[in-house]
Design a protein that fits this description.
CATH class of the largest domain: Alpha Beta
CATH superfamily of the largest domain: Medium-chain alcohol dehydrogenases, catalytic domain
Number of strands: 17
Distance between the termini: 10 Å
CATH architecture of the largest domain: Alpha-Beta Complex
Largest sheet: 7 strands, mixed
Number of domains: 2
Helix content: 25-40%
């Protein structure tokens, strides 16, 4: 099969395009012909190295849409040619975390494209339990732009932050996959949404997605802007996935008793907290790591009904994956960058 892979961690230069053996599905697995695979910031971190052992040569790509090509032993209910989306999280399905719907807390939890090979290829082997049937109402590229980011945004806002109608949410990086998804989830929940971005074009697109107010974080203090927009009160929830660069401001932007939900550290993982500021204002900081299959099924139901819409920035040929990652590293996209084999 054709694939983009790397054999050592590093910069964009480690990405290679070439032939790898087509994987064979084992018991309970299927071989999917990849029609589209979306990028995530996770791809950049895994390529650079997270200190966690991964299979080498490694194939990135967590969000896969395609068709079933080969069924492994013991797989039933599917047939060759079925259109499928692949749930990105792999869990045991039997532990107490899985049984309670908290799949990402499973001790054996893995992410396709991270701890196992993913979709930067013409083919990928995945567990049959991760298959989700999809219609032709959306293109493969649109389906690929959906699962991880909408699941993450839903888990952060609806499950972990327990967002309520009428509350105010600050969403960082409206142009990112999670940011563009979070704007839509927050609006669907009945919240007032503030979104940050770095260009007028991105701010305008954020408005089109449903943001009530936008903040250009290059022109001043985003936290003060958020407080000004709330009459000095502060926001109820901050969706934080930038990390070091925005952490202090995110806490400052919160109302007393506010909640910060975080799922990433794009600008760096080391942050500081003044505990006096933290406990006297009764702030909550909540970590988020993807989400459960039931949440994903709910998100996809809403996508299928048109309430949530995948945002595709660009579609780039698989062999140009380095260019696609460079676009993401430069924060030039709005929405999802998708590779097409």
């Amino acid at each position: 099969m054709k694939a983009v892979y790397f054999e050592k961690h590093g910069g964009l230069e480690v990405l290679q395009y070439g032939e790898l053996p087509t994987p064979k599905p084992g018991v309970g697995e299927v071989l999917v012909r990849v029609e589209a695979c979306a990028l995530n910031h996770l791809d950049l971190w895994v390529r650079m190295g997270l200190g966690i052992p991964i299979p080498m040569p490694h194939v990135l790509g967590s969000e896969i849409a395609g068709t079933i090509e080969v069924l492994g032993a013991g797989v039933s209910g599917w047939k060759r040619g079925d259109r499928v989306l692949v749930a990105p999280g792999v869990s045991c399905g039997a532990c107490s975390a899985c049984r309670s719907g908290h799949d990402s807390r499973c001790p054996s939890f893995q992410i396709i494209g991270f701890q196992r090979n993913g979709g930067y290829a013409t083919h990928a082997v995945v567990p049959s339990a991760n298959l989700i049937a999809i219609s032709d109402a959306l293109s493969y590229e649109e389906w690929a732009a959906t699962p991880l980011v909408f699941l993450t945004a839903w888990h952060m806002l609806m499950t972990r932050a327990a967002l309520k109608p009428g509350e105010t949410v600050l969403v960082h990086a409206a142009g990112s996959g999670v940011g563009s998804a979070a704007i839509q989830v927050a609006k669907l929940a009945g919240a007032r949404v503030f979104a940050t971005a770095s260009t007028k074009a991105k701010l305008a697109l954020a408005k089109r997605l449903g943001a009530d107010e936008t903040i250009d974080y290059t022109e001043g203090d985003f936290a003060q802007a958020a407080r000004d927009l709330t009459g000095g009160r502060g926001v109820d929830v901050v969706l934080e996935h930038i990390g070091q660069q925005t952490w202090t401001g995110s806490l400052t932007a919160l109302v007393r008793g506010g909640r910060l939900v975080t799922c990433g550290a794009t600008s760096g993982p080391k942050v500081g907290i003044d505990l006096r500021h933290f406990f006297t204002r009764e702030l909550s900081v909540v970590g988020c790591y993807m989400g459960g299959r039931a949440e994903l099924d709910r998100v996809l139901e809403l996508v299928g009904q048109g309430w949530l819409k995948p945002v595709v920035d660009t579609v780039i040929p698989l062999k140009e994956a380095a260019r696609a990652q460079a676009r993401m590293e430069g924060r030039r996209q709005f929405g999802k960058i998708v590779l097409k084999p």
